[in-house]
Specification:
The complex is a heterodimer. By secondary structure, chain A is α/β, with parallel strands linked by helices. A five-stranded parallel sheet of chain A has the order 2-3-1-4-5, with helices on both faces. In chain B, 43% of the residues are buried. Chain B has one domain: P-loop containing nucleotide triphosphate hydrolases (Rossmann fold), CATH 3.40.50.300. In chain B, 53% of the residues lie in helices and 12% in strands. Chain B has a five-stranded parallel sheet with strand order 2-3-1-4-5, sandwiched between helices. The chains are: A alpha/beta, B alpha/beta. The interface between A and B is medium-sized, with 34 and 33 residues.
Chain lengths: 227, 231
């Protein structure tokens, strides 16, 4: 992942110090991100830590507008990416940063890294995409539910009626399109791994989840717990 | 910014300036004049994408937009218009008249505290205008014009999101003063040509039309370009 042309210091007063922990849950469509987020929230709250699940989109009053634009096929990939980046900037200021400042563990069901991977997989220039997201905080920990495009596809088809063309990287909701696009996204996420605190987790294994909870709590308490 | 890469047959004419500088009136008059002469003309305004504008309007009303979100949403609007509406016309021989171009983002977002290099890199690879005019007006003159027209100012338009001023007109005046400095700096760097927008409108048109004449000389008229399409 390239370095942005300039990183925006949009919220330096909040970025310089916060008590909370920013956890990104990134991975393929249908990899089980929401399941991981919900389990982690449960376990962390049981242990006495405030945890909040957020998505990259403000989903209350803007929902009507966003879903209309999102499914408008006239909207090009560059404009679409900038729209998502803008919404993520709103979420960052109004939800993520205040909660971090208040000592929450933020479980981001997709962090900006997923927005980055998607835009690059769609063919936008990686340096440009990285720069456009130059305002975003790097998560303290990133969790990737272990998956492969075929398993992700199966989960997706259990949960929803049809594949979303936006997740297939083309105008056709085809099987090949979905698998090909998710594979590209997977490769892009894979390339980011060495630069971050990245944990791949097998969601079927309860021990793995418990270990992750210890890691998160360890970081919250300022201890250095290796994964 | 890059030159039009396929040597487009159209031309891009841009007007920039503060609200109340008279640029919109000027571009309307220019557009009508060019149409009367038989040119294919297309007008586009800042923040007018039919896909993005409804959301922008809503987000502004809710006062949700921090400077980064504000900048990115306007960029989304710009690239939607650029790729779907403007580029196809530039490359097929239209005279595109743009009421504000990337310079508005450079100036506004920079005044909102964002790094100028960051803003410029967001808008890289955008066609360079064949003519870009800055309508230079002292901010108090622009304010008087808007007040005279009974215009009501909005929260972001008046810069209240960054000025911390409670009075909307005072905030607007402050914002315009900041922006004017940035615009004049861009003019000095050669991005914009300055037009004295306190001159009578007819006088301004005379100057603009003289500047346009050599630029549009080789652009085919509407009748020619439709005939040629079948040859």
């Amino acid at each position: 992942m390239p370095t942005p042309v300039r990183t925006l210091q949009a919220w330096s007063y909040l970025q310089s110090y916060y008590d909370g922990l920013y956890v990104g849950i990134d991975g393929l469509e249908g990899s089980g991100r929401s399941t991981v987020a919900a389990s982690l929230q449960n376990k962390l709250q049981s242990a006495g830590y405030p945890a909040k699940i957020i998505s990259p989109f403000p989903n209350t009053k803007t929902h009507k507008y966003i879903s209309e634009i999102k499914h408008d096929r006239r909207l090009g990939i560059k404009s679409r990416h900038l729209l998502y980046a803008s919404l993520f900037a709103i979420v960052t200021e109004h939800i993520i940063l205040p909660h971090l400042a208040a000592g929450y563990i933020i479980l981001s069901d997709r962090s900006w890294l997923s927005l980055y991977a998607r835009a690059v997989a769609q063919g936008l220039d990686e340096q440009w995409v990285r720069t456009s997201l130059g305002f975003a905080l790097m998560p303290d920990i990133i969790i990737e539910p272990q998956s492969d495009p075929i398993t992700a596809l199966r989960r997706k088809l259990i949960m929803s009626e049809a594949l979303d063309p936006l997740e297939s990287g083309s105008d056709n909701e085809t099987l090949e399109g979905f698998i090909d696009f998710q594979s590209r996204m997977g490769q892009i996420l894979h390339d980011i791994k060495p630069k971050t605190s990245w944990h791949v987790i097998n969601i079927a294994n309860p021990d793995a989840l418990n270990h992750l909870v210890s890691t998160i709590i360890g970081q919250m308490e300022g201890r250095d717990v290796s994964s | 910014m890059e030159e039009h890469y396929t040597r487009p047959s159209g031309r891009l004419i841009v007007v920039e300036g503060t609200d109340g500088s008279g640029k919109s009136t000027a571009i309307e008059l220019l557009g009508n004049w060019l149409k009367t002469q038989g040119y294919p003309v297309y007008r586009t305004a800042w923040n007018s994408s039919p896909l993005i504008k409804p959301l922008t309007r809503h987000a502004k009303k809710q006062q949700w937009l921090n400077p980064a979100a504000y900048s990115l949403l306007h960029a989304s609007d710009f690239f939607d218009r650029l790729n779907r509406l403007i580029k196809p016309r530039l490359h097929s021989g239209f005279l595109v008249l743009a009421d504000r171009w990337v310079y508005t983002a450079w100036v506004r977002d920079h005044v909102r505290g964002l790094d100028l290099e960051w803003i410029k890199s967001l808008y890289r690879d955008v066609p360079q205008p064949d003519l870009a005019i800055y309508f230079s007006t002292p901010p108090d003159v622009a304010v008087d014009r808007l007040k005279h027209a009974s215009r009501k100012l909005k929260y972001y338009e008046s810069g209240q999101d960054i000025s911390g001023l409670r009075d909307r007109w005072n905030s607007f005046l402050w914002l315009q003063e900041q922006m004017r400095e940035s615009y004049l700096a861009l003019a000095e760097q050669g991005y914009l040509q300055v037009l004295d927008a306190t001159l009578p409108i007819a006088e301004q048109q005379k100057i603009l039309r003289n500047q346009l004449a050599p630029i549009i000389r080789d652009v085919p008229l509407l009748s020619q370009f439709l005939d040629n399409a079948h040859s």
